[in-house]
Specification:
This protein is an alpha+beta fold. Helices cover 65% and strands 13% of the residues. The chain has four helices and four strands; from the N terminus they run αββββααα.
């Protein structure tokens, strides 16, 4: 009973993370540069916006991929890969579980292996998301501290 609740909570969090990643992918505010007191420029993964205070927001898509700064190119690729991996993990978890249940395979280990593979995909997508967002941080030491703490948490949760 507890295991089913944990599985439901984990798949719900994975779906929520996938939807938030899709939303983040379209946001224009990956880098904000203040030009003057009223005007600021927002650089996103797909478009460039000019904001004049709270009144006007003019956006345009990049004319070519070469105009996009290198760090935003890399972040965009990592975010898209993250979305695809999470989608495949959700398919594996939901459809694979239903197929094994309908085929009435007596081997419980197959279900556990499918769920473990989906979990590894979710973990990989989460790490890709962390790297793409951390790429934008100014201080590398802060980014390394975050990655080290996550590594410690993951390693402490592994069975001994």
């Amino acid at each position: 009973m507890v295991r089913l609740k944990l599985e439901a909570a984990s798949i719900s969090l994975a779906m929520l993370g996938w939807l938030v990643t899709i939303i983040i992918c379209g946001l224009p505010s990956w880098r904000v540069v203040k030009v003057s007191e009223e005007t600021s420029i927002w650089e996103g993964l797909w478009n460039l916006c000019e904001a004049e205070g709270l009144k006007i927001l003019r956006c345009m898509t990049y004319s070519s991929h070469e105009v996009l700064p290198h760090d935003l190119k890399v972040s965009g690729v990592l975010i898209v890969i993250c979305i695809i991996i999470t989608f495949l993990g959700l398919l594996l978890f939901l459809i694979g579980d239903k197929l094994i249940t309908r085929m009435r395979m007596p081997d419980i280990c197959t279900k556990d292996m499918l769920k473990m593979a989906a979990s590894v995909m979710f973990l990989g997508a989460g790490l890709l998301m962390l790297v793409s967002v951390s790429w934008k941080l100014e201080e590398a030491s802060f980014s390394r501290a975050i990655l080290a703490s996550i590594g410690t948490i993951v390693c402490s949760e592994l069975p001994k």
